[in-house]
Amino acid sequence: MIDMNTKLNGIKLVLLDLDGTIHLGGELIDGALEFLQRCNERNIKTIFLSNNSSKSVEQYVTSLRSIGIETVPENILLSTHDCIEWLKNKKWNKVFCLGTNGMKEMLNENGIQCLENNVDCVVLGYDTELTYQKLSQAVFLLHQKIPLVATHPDIVCPTKRGGLPDVGAMLKMIELATGVRPLIVTGKPRPEMILGRLEKEGLVGSEVAMIGDRLYTDMEMARLADVKSVLVLSGEASLQDVEEHHWMPDIIVDSVDGLLRDVA
Q1: CATH fold label, 13-51+188-258
Q2: Cβ–Cβ under 8 Å, residues 96 and 119
Q3: Which 3 state secondary structure label does DSSP give 32?
């Protein structure tokens, strides 16, 4: 399906979701590399924007290069970045991180210590290295009235074999066990995740497109940040989801392969 301005006229920057938009479970979506090449040919800057907090920036760069996508750390923007900025604003620099080693590395690099006790909060990321011991320690801290912070709200991480439990699913499990809900959920759809970067790039909303596969994160962020919303149907969202949603994205395509074609 192709709808509306698929040529992205006037767009100078695309914010590209990864899981479900560029790849599924590490396997490139058909036409993704060609789309990135068309962006390059038209001098459209690409920033890879992901809620997936399971990897560090360097791990993302390495992972993308392994599937043929060349980028630099400055063009990777994660929910972990947004979480770090929020923690810094709160002056919370001691956390229990229910997350991967890659996420902990990013926290440590930004002056936030990952400890077992005497912490400001519990930070929940997409912990693909989750153990029951780690989960138990997080729950013990929450029972002690330590606040909970989550990096993003995604319920599942899409793969070709179906969705895997992501932070949103883990939050529900924790809430059922403790009655605790997060003080804040950072990452998409929070517009703060991108507004500072757009100001740095000197761009206004009409010059920026957010491309992603989820209505409640990618498209909602585009709406809140007042940038062009481009929904791809290669990941989580379906046309039925769109019909049941409260507003329509600016552009809907089957995948990024349907964008930037036949530009004069």
Answers
A1: Rossmann fold (3.40.50)
A2: yes
A3: helix
